[in-house]
Specification:
alpha+beta, Alpha-Beta Plaits, two-stranded antiparallel sheet, 7 helices, 6 strands
């Protein structure tokens, strides 16, 4: 998952070019899903470990953009879908989102997050993900990538629940 491409006309990356960059980074069976930087691929564990850095470098070389790349395996995405606390609580799906982090934040950093930052929005940090319930929508929330990145010393990218479940279905179909 790439952060911040093709959003509001900024950081334009054609999906055909993006798929080619993943192929150049030693990935096979590359497919993209919607224009916001979702890529499904096969790669060896050794190659997968190098993909974020390789693709970020290729995008910078070819397009002049610095774009973070965050990976999740099929097993990790399955766990993401199974661990959504807002889904279990019956919250409306259209207000559910997941923020994917590059690393697991420390307990000390998590404890300093403000649970009342953007009411009625809520969040729960679980491992390398932050589950969000945003009844005022993303644009109406202060629970942003910048907030969590700065507080947790990480890099994140966010997807709505519909995209999360679609990516999981595509990953299962490609396995």
């Amino acid at each position: 998952m790439l952060r911040g491409i093709n959003v509001g006309g900024h950081n334009k990356v054609p999906m055909k070019d993006l798929a080619a960059m993943f192929c150049d980074a030693r990935c096979d069976k590359v497919q993209t899903y919607i224009q916001s930087g979702n890529v499904i691929f096969h790669a060896s564990p050794a190659a997968s470990a190098k993909v974020p850095g390789a693709v970020t470098a290729l995008i910078e070389q070819r397009l002049g953009l610095r774009v973070p790349v965050i990976l999740r395996t099929l097993e990790q995405m399955t766990a993401v879908a199974a661990n959504n606390p807002f889904l279990a609580a019956g919250a409306p799906l259209e207000y559910q989102h997941v923020m994917f982090l590059t690393n697991v934040p420390t307990r000390q950093a998590i404890d300093l997050l403000d649970p009342q930052r953007s009411p009625p929005g809520q969040f729960q940090v679980r491992g390398q993900e932050i589950y969000l319930w945003l009844p005022n929508r993303v644009a109406g929330s202060k629970l942003t990538n910048a907030y969590f990145d700065s507080r947790l010393s990480t890099t994140s990218t966010q997807r709505n629940w519909q995209t999360v479940t679609k990516l999981l279905a595509l990953m299962r179909g490609a396995a």
